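Appendix C: a fully annotated inverse folding record. The material below is reproduced so that readers can follow the format used throughout the book. The structure is listed first as tokens, followed by the designed sequence.
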């Protein structure tokens, strides 16, 4: 079964063809970061407009790379939410039009389900049940994937998402948007114990996070000592990164142990973070929990993850076409 996955929920226009929910035949991502960078964040109206420009060329490229024509598709899966309303509408209307023109069924997919199931595209992919830590610019939540289509949200951030914290701290430090990768790179040369930033930790058994206090602590530090340079900048990045990776990995691993689910998947843009990956693996190993790490390309927004989620929904009997509407605040 060949599924076209289409993703336009934020600032990536992405399309991919995936075979049988496991093998990406193509994976095309056109990012708008250069457009949004000068504004220091995603501007919704600019995002919608650029999706309109990019969406058909990106779909064409995905089909061409896969060597598949539109009519050879068995399903079109499109992100229906959550995300930016105008941006989502571009993808949904495009998918609808392609479906109407070709007779290929169209299915709306949840973006977070896409992130959770992206791991299906690696060779040694986990079968449910597994825990999935979704850490991105918009979300920080831990899910129990009981089965495909059965997701239990165990907890979330109370304020900022982890990626949002990276991007806000990056702004304080004068780094380009999105700041996750630049902070990660700077942190490599820094001392993670240079500055003891606060960890907002309830009981380790409570699955929740908070990153706004950490962001405020970084702001106070910068106000007091000025924007650091050189080694001091590296030390600050490493110390901030350590605080984020510490709370995320600790609570996710503790939940896996408590629930007796020995498989933990990291996903979303922040799952590309080197320290989060290393620390999670380290802590999980001590407790016989296997951590699955998608390659960075599958962490950030892409069309292949949407195709996988669409394939699994179709297989479990979700009807294409039924309630095909955008839901900007949709939770799985
Ligand atoms: O999943 P994603 O591409 O888009 C959303 O759905 O939000 O995630 C983007 C986020 C941004 O906040 C970016 O700064 C962060 O992922 N990010 C990282 C790294 N690479 C991207 N954060 C920490 N370390 C990284 N290496
Ligand atoms: Zn995302």
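Designed amino acids, in order:
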């Amino acid at each position: 079964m060949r599924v076209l996955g289409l993703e336009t929920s934020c600032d990536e226009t992405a399309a991919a063809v995936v075979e049988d929910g496991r093998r990406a035949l193509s994976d095309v991502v056109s990012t708008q970061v250069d457009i949004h960078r000068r504004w220091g964040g995603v501007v919704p109206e600019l995002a919608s407009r650029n999706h309109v420009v990019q969406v058909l060329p990106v779909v064409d490229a995905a089909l061409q790379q896969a060597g598949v024509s539109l009519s050879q598709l068995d399903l079109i899966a499109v992100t229906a939410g959550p995300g930016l309303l105008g941006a989502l509408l571009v993808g949904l209307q495009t998918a609808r039009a392609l479906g109407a023109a070709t007779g290929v069924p169209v299915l709306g997919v949840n973006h977070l389900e896409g992130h959770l199931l992206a791991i299906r595209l690696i060779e040694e992919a986990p079968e449910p049940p597994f825990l999935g830590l979704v850490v991105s610019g918009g979300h920080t939540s831990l899910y129990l994937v009981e089965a495909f289509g059965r997701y239990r949200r165990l907890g979330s951030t109370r304020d900022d998402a982890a990626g949002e914290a990276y991007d806000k701290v990056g702004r304080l430090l004068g780094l380009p948007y999105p700041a996750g990768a630049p902070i990660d790179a700077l942190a490599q040369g820094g001392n993670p114990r240079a500055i003891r930033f606060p960890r907002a930790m309830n009981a380790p058994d409570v699955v929740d996070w908070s990153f706004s206090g950490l962001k405020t602590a970084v702001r106070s530090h910068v106000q007091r000592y000025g924007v650091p340079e050189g080694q001091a900048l590296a030390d600050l990045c490493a110390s901030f990164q350590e605080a984020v990776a510490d709370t995320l990995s600790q609570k996710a691993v503790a939940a896996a142990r408590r629930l007796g689910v020995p498989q933990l998947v990291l996903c979303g843009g922040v799952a590309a973070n080197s320290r989060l990956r290393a620390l999670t693996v380290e802590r999980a190993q001590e407790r016989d929990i296997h951590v699955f790490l998608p390659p960075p390309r599958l962490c950030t927004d892409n069309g292949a993850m949407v195709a996988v989620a669409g394939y699994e929904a179709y297989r479990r009997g979700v009807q294409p076409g039924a309630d095909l509407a955008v839901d900007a605040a949709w939770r799985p």
